[in-house]
Amino acid sequence: MDPVRNPYAPGAGQRPPELAGRDTELSAFDVVLERIAHGRPERSLVLTGLRGVGKTVLLNQLRSAAISRGWGTGKIEARPDQSLRRPVSSALHMALRELGPRHGDQESVAEVLGVVKAFAQRVAPADAKLRDRWQPGIDVPAATGRADSGDMEIDLVELLSDAAGVAADIGSGIALFIDEMQDVQPDDVSAICAACHELSQQGAPLIVVGAGLPHLPAVLSASKSYSERLFRYLRIDRLERDAADRALIAPAEREGVEFAPGALDALYEAADGYPYFVQAYGKVTWDVAASSPITAEDVAMAAPVAETELAVGFFGSRYDRATPAEREYMHAMAELGGPQGAAVATSEVAVSLGRKPASLSPARDSLIKKGLVYSAERGQIAFTVPHFGRYLLRHPD
C-alpha cells in the first residue's frame, strides 16, 4: 500500500492519529477544569506509567484541553541536572502572555512578570558574569522582595500565588505541565509540593499536572508526607484490546483500508497493548501489506522488521547508555524476570551475579537515575521500558 498515506506515527511524544483508551483520564481532567472554574477546590494531577504508554501524548492532550478553555499554560521537561527555576520561569512567562491581553490592568500583569524575572534570575549569584546570567526576555524590571529569597520553597509559593492571582482576576486559570517529573531535583520536588499545598488552601486557580515513571508517587511522598493527599494519581497503562484495535482501525478506515480479524489478533499479541508498539507494528505492517484488507500473513512478514527497528531505536538506544556493570545488572534482571520483565528482588540479582548486594548498589542507583529501571517497591527492581527483558534475552551480548 501507499507508504505516503500510512497513518501510523510511532514517535516520542507524538500524538497517534487515534487517541484511543484515554477517555477516563480526559474526562477526569475536564472535571478538574470545570470545578476550578466554579471556584471549587481541586487537587493537581500526576500521571504515572512505563515508557511507551503515552504519558507525554496524554499530557499534551490535557494541555490542549486547558487551552481550549482559555487557560494559560506552560510545559517543561525536567532534567536531573537542572534546577526548575529557569524552566518554570519560561513556562509561566508563556502562560501569562496568553492571559495578559485579557487582563484589564496591565500594570498588575507587569508586576507579576517582574516577579517571574526575579525568580528566574535568582539562579545566578549577584556577582556572576554577564554570560552566566540568564535573561528570560521579560521587558520589565525584576521585582525585589518577592520570589527572590533564594529559598526555592518560599520563592515558588510566592511566584505561583502571584501568577494565579492574574488568572483569578479574569476568571481563568493556569496549568503548569511537568514531564519526566521523577527527574525533578529533591529541593524542587519539596517546593512543588509546598506550592500546590498552599494554592489548594487558597483555592487559587493554578494546578500542576505532572507525568513520570511508576516510582514518581514514592519520590513525592519522600519529599512531603502529605503529597499522597495533595495529588490525584492516575496510572496510565497499556491499552485494552478494544482500544488497541480502535487505534489501528480508525486511522485505516479514514484511508479506506480494512484489517482482517486475524491481523488484529496478531498485532495485539505483538504490541501487547502498549501504545508506542501499536503504532510501530501498525506502521510497518501497512508498508508491507500489498492491499486491503491487511491480513495476519502481512503482520507475520512485518513483525521481524518492526522488531529490528525497535531493537535499534527504542531498546538499543537505551541499552547503549549503560556501562558494562549496568548492562550486567540488567541482564541478570532479565534472566530472573523473564520475557515479561517482571519485578525481581535486588537480593536475587546479587545472588545471580555472585556478588554482595552493597557492591551492586552503584550500578542499580545509576540505572535508576538514567531512567532504565525503577524501584517497584522496597527491595524490588523492574524495567521502566516494557519488553526490555525480552530484548535483553534476545541480545545477550
From TrEMBL:
Domain of life of the organism encoding this protein: Bacteria
Molecular function in Gene Ontology: electron transfer activity; heme binding; metal ion binding
Alphabetically ordered keywords of this record: Heme, Iron, Metal-binding
Region: Disordered, residue numbers: 1-21
Any Pfam family matching the protein: AAA_16
PANTHER family associated with the record: ATPASE DOMAIN-CONTAINING PROTEIN, DNA-BINDING PROTEIN-RELATED
Name of this chain's protein: AAA ATPase domain-containing protein
Annotated ranges, domain Cytochrome c: 168-281
InterPro entries: AAA_16, Cyt_c-like_dom, P-loop_NTPase
Lineage summary: Bacteria, Bacillati, Actinomycetota, Actinomycetes, Geodermatophilales
